[in-house]
Give the backbone structure.
Amino acid sequence: MLATMNEPLAPVSPAREAVILGASLGSGLLIVPLLAYLAGALVLGPYPGGSANQIIENEFRGLAAGAWSSWIIALAPYVMVQLGRAIWKSERLRQRLWPERAPPESGPHDLSARK
């Protein structure tokens, strides 16, 4: 359940963060490379001498070797989740600090009221 604007935000629990990190890393290590493989195979055709298993194997080899590209792929889902959370919290803070005002009544500045 989402908190209303007047309620404080729930504190972040380490267990919840661990679940988010684990799910994000799992998807970054397995799902993202598979989606990249499928997209490449559909757009460019089959990889010569490559399979989905080899793509995942190359991802793990790259992580072990410290390849930046492999780390970016592995951490991208977690970074996107954290970015989404930051945007969500900043929007909630903005709404608390500067609540939306009712639109002004029709007046001389309103172009739709002119003939």
Remarks:
- The longest helix spans residues 14-44.
- Residues 26-96 form one domain.
- The mean pLDDT is 83.
